[in-house]
Specification:
Structural class: alpha/beta
Mean pLDDT: 84
Strand order of the largest sheet: 3-4-5-6-7
Order of helices and strands: HHHHEHEHHEEEHHEEHH
Radius of gyration: 20 Å
Largest sheet: 5 strands, mixed
Number of helices: 11
Number of strands: 7
Shape: globular
Length: 280
């Protein structure tokens, strides 16, 4: 176990082939929006790049000088200057200086707030801590931003902090909160900064919020059992499920009855089966 966790500290292994033997909370977004590309290598997007920069600058500032975070003073990514720079640096995407300025302001807003600063940088805190655990019979992985004495702290940016408690379910933070609490045995708390207004907020997941996350993960287990029974005998399945790795599926939580959720689950599984069969 210790050797596995040590290996997962490296982003190369956490996001690479080694880490793909475990489910993660990020899998749900891929399966919801682009299931054909589940577990496929994807080019980094603007949101991913800026998100990485934000977390690195907050938690591992010694790494922000990495070539990953090169910036260019261009008005947009459509300019000749920008296109020449990404070719020069052999990059698929680079930060614009104005984007970096906005993220740096969000970072300074967090770090200049005494309550946030003391919680994030409290003595004894651990940063970017990986974990693996069996949940509902499946193996999952996660990497906590901050492991404090009594809680986990997850840093988030948002474009509208007033809607964060609603958008949190849309982005599957409910399942993240549930799973991470299982991984580490501590509650997860979201420390949030608005990228537009620079307002700050601290959000403690409610029991209802956690129950939604639990329901999603349980439904995934049921889905995997059904899928494996149907297609485990296909040798090409090894390409998609290595060492009992599995697929994760979002279950909408705005339905009124269990019957409605069951019907939607069945319809969604049938659609995913068609996608998987078609790819063989």
């Amino acid at each position: 176990m210790d050797s596995v966790l040590e290996k997962l500290k490296s982003d190369e292994h956490y996001y690479g082939e080694f880490g793909k033997q475990y489910l993660s909370n990020s899998d749900i977004i891929t399966l919801l929006n682009d299931p054909k590309n589940f577990r496929q290598d994807k080019e980094i997007t603007k949101a991913m790049l800026l998100g990485r920069y934000f977390h690195t600058a907050m938690l591992e500032p010694e790494k922000v000088k990495s070539t990953e975070f090169l910036e260019i003073d261009a008005s947009s990514r459509n300019t000749k200057k920008y296109k020449e720079e990404i070719l020069t640096h052999n990059k698929s995407i680079m930060m614009l200086s104005k984007e970096k300025i906005d993220i740096d302001k969000a970072i300074s807003t967090m770090t200049n707030n005494l309550e946030f600063y003391e919680a994030i940088y409290d003595e004894g805190n651990q940063y970017e801590v990986p974990a693996i655990k069996e949940v509902h019979g499946m193996m999952w992985k996660g990497k906590a931003d901050i492991v404090a004495e009594e809680m986990l702290i997850d840093l988030k940016t948002t474009s509208n902090i007033k809607d964060f408690k609603y958008s949190a379910r849309k982005y599957n933070y409910d399942s993240q909160a549930y799973l991470y609490q299982k991984f580490f045995g501590k509650p997860l708390v979201f420390y949030v900064v608005d990228k537009t207004t620079y307002e700050l907020g601290i959000y403690h997941p409610s029991q209802t919020f956690l129950e939604y996350g639990k329901e999603k993960s349980k439904c995934i287990t049921n889905f995997i059992v059904k899928m494996l029974k149907k297609i485990l005998n296909r040798t090409s399945l090894k390409k998609y499920f290595k060492k009992k790795s599995v697929v994760w599926l979002q279950i909408p939580t705005d339905l009124n009855t269990q019957a409605e959720r069951d019907n939607l689950m069945e319809a969604t599984m049938n659609q995913l089966e068609k996608i998987i069969y078609k790819s063989f």
